Amino acid sequence: MPQPEISQSHPPVVKKRISDPLSVQVLLVGLTYLFFIGFIFLPLGLVFSQAFGKGWSVYLEAIREPYAIEAVKLTLLTVAIVVPVNAVFGVAAAWAITKFNFPGKSTLKSLLDLPFAVSPVIAGLIFVLLVGSRTPFGSWLGEHGIKIIFSTPGIIIATIFVTFPFIARELIPLMESQGRDEEEAALTLGAKGWQIFWTVTLPNIRWGLLYGTILCGARSIGEFGAVSVVSGHIRGQTNTVPLHVEILYSEYNFTASFAVASLLVFLALLTVVVKSTMEKHFQKNSFHH
Amino acid sequence: MALFQIKRRNILPGFGLSMGYTVFYLSAIVIVPVSMIFFNTFPMGWEPFVNAVTAPRVIASYKLSFSTAFFAALFDAFAGLLTAWVLVRYRFPGKQFLDALVDLPFALPTAVAGICFATLYSPIGWLGQLLAPLNLHIINTPTGIIIALIFIGFPFVVRTIQPVLEEMEQEIEEAAHCLGATRWQTFTKILLPHLFPALLTGVTLAFARGIGEYGSVIFIAGNLPMKTEIAPLMIMSKLDQFDYAGASAVALVLLLISFTMLLLLNAVQEWQQKEYRS
Q1: Considering only residues 73 to 132 of chain A, which have any Cβ-Cβ distance to chain B shorter than 8 Å?
Q2: Are residues A36 and A149 in the same domain?
Q3: B48 vs chain A: nearest CA distance in angstroms?
Q4: CB contact at 8 A, B103 and B156
Q5: Which member of A125, A184, A272 has the closest CB to residue B101?
Q6: Alpha helix locations (H) across B90-141?
Q7: How far does the CA of residue B66 sit from the closest CA of chain A (Å)?
Q8: Best mutation site among A17, A24, A39, A280 for testing chain B: the one with the most B CBs within 10 Å?
Q9: Residue boundaries of the structural domains of chain B
Q10: How far apart are CA A36 and CA B167, in angstroms?
Q11: With helix as H, strand as E and coil as C, how does chain A read?
């Protein structure tokens, strides 16, 4: 019968909620847009207008220049090491914290957040104090031909420090809410430790892990303060992409600086889009499925 | 009973491995390096330490970092509350788009934000041009630092208020409406007290982040001694002169203040949870 179908196709009756008058709504939305124009849209527009202002060929030249390519390579190398290392740590820390009870758990959790409370400059400073060439440990390393500060290992370690809470922080609340029933069931059915991890835990946490990995990756690409302290700014050697942007800018080479910066903006926009898409996905289906 | 509990606690494997790895990694990457600040400051002795951290230039940089971070966080309280409210309660064109872009300051490298604001507000920049005839100078002033810090702290406030606002039941507001309260009364007497703990958390996070922020500030600040030199930059310039003890002393004070704020924040969050339950 067609009739009930027609009545179903009508929009469902929504209970009218009390809300603000239209004039207030328009005013508040207008103010929000004004804030976004000043603080988000104008800076974004500026990057592209400066980067492409002198045409495509100048833009391509700036990002194809050998030093720019070296900087991109160094940044990619840093991310390729930092993200997996922090992912392994994040999973281990989340496993220990959520699957077991032990004294000092809350202290451990606050220690995980410590890098968020530390200024990026201090994050760089601590590694200069630990392994810089003027420290006992650093000079001992130097005698054995190992250089950390003002070289790639220093950049990687400082980036690990700055980004290491991201993945653990995503996984801990997620694994806490999932509890340990499924793992315990697997254990009673005779599964071994790693088997439980690969077949039960990892599929359950894969979205949270991916989400934390994206945040960690975005921050590793963009870290500036900490890397700036330990890098030494040697072009073609210890210059990451954000440091390269800074050097070009301070040389008044604005077009090239914004051209290289536009690469970082593309990545930031991609991160934001992926993040919001994933969040929408989770809201509908909850984290694990 | 006690035996049973111990057994139950250890039923899953991997405690030794995951815990051992966590503690090792945490010590190597965080605890040992951060403790270097203390080990480099203590041999200084009390008096040189006090002299280092109370030098006029250092004091000026602390004052600047705290005041600019404070005003930026205050501005973010309003901008963040407004944005969260509009995103949760209203439907308007471009809503999804704005919601996603709230996270841009998290995702955008701070150096890029820094050069953007410095260029926007330079005397020939898009906004600097408009402000110059009014005799408003943003670049090389504390106002410029505040603008950069507003950008950096904004997502912290929005993202802490948003979930609380989403979970709030509108029935409470309807009840207030039925009892004759005006919209404004409902907002100040019911909504705002309910949102206050989240707002405070967000603002504290934005403030803490602002104190330590470096990349987005140094380009617009101009870094004039005694005027627009932020505390993290003081650490940087001491390091450039190989004054490791001085740099650690300035960093130690900054760290202690940040830790105190984190502890206060934890206390606020506990209070928030208690409020929420009752």
Answers
A1: 89, 92-93, 95-97, 99-102, 108, 110-115, 117-122, 125-130, 132
A2: no
A3: 19
A4: no
A5: A272
A6: 95-101, 104-107, 110-120, 126-131
A7: 13
A8: A39
A9: 49-277
A10: 25
A11: CHHHHHHHHCCCCCCCCCCCCHHHHHHHHHHHHHHHHHHHHHHHHHHHHHHHCCCHHHHHHHHHCHHHHHHHHHHHHHHHHHHHHHHHHHHHHHHHHHHCCCCCHHHHHHHHHHHHHCCHHHHHHHHHHHHCCCCHHHHHHHHCCCCCCCCHHHHHHHHHHHHCHHHHHHHHHHHHHHCCHHHHHHHHCCCCHHHHHHHHHHHHHHHHHHHHHHHHHHHHHHCCHHHHHHHCCCCCCCCCHHHHHHHHHHCCCHHHHHHHHHHHHHHHHHHHHHHHHHHHHHHHHCCCC
Give me the residues of A, 132-171, that contact B with CB < 8 A.
132, 134, 157, 160-161, 164
Q: Coil, helix or strand for B224?
A: coil
Look up the domain containing A133 and give its range.
Answer: 54-285
CB contact under 8 A, B19 and A32: no
Tokens for A18, please give them: 């009390």
Contact B22 A160 (CB under 8 A): no
CATH number of the domain within which A245 lies: 1.10.3720.10
Whether residues A44 and A172 share a domain: the answer is no
Q: Does residue B247 come out as left (phi exceeding 0), alpha (psi in the -120 to 50 range) or beta? A: alpha
Both A33 and A116 in one domain: the answer is: no
Gap between the Cα atoms of A228 and A224, Å rounded: 6
Give how far Cα A73 sits from Cα of A11, A239, A241, Å: 54, 10, 9
What are phi and psi for residue A62, nearest 5 degrees?
A: -65, -40
Structure confidence at residue B10 (pLDDT)? 60
| Record: contact B259-A117, CB cut-off 8 A | yes
CA distance B123 to chain A (A): 15
- pLDDT by residue (tens digit) across A57-111? 999 999 999 999 999 999 999 999 999 999 999 999 999 999 888 888 888 888 8
* ipTM score of complex: 0.89
Give the confidence band of B186 by pLDDT, cuts at 50, 70, 90.
Answer: confident
Residues A121 and A225 in one domain: yes
Q: Does A47 lie in the same domain as A58? A: no
State the smallest CA–CA distance between residue B33 and chain A in angstroms: 5
A40 with A83, same domain? no
Q: pLDDT tens-digit profile of A108-134? A: 888 888 888 899 999 999 999 998 888
Domain count, chain A: 2
In a domain, A232, yes or no: yes
Q: How far is B2 from chain A (nearest CA, A)?
A: 14
Predicted model pTM? 0.89
Chain A residues inside the 8 Å CB shell of B13: 187, 192-193, 196
CATH annotation of B49-277 = 1.10.3720.10
The closest CB to that of B244, out of A100, A134, A183, belongs to A134
Does A227 lie in the same domain as A144? yes
pLDDT tens-digit series, residues A130-151: 988 888 888 888 888 888 888 8
Amino acid (1-letter code) at residue B139 = I
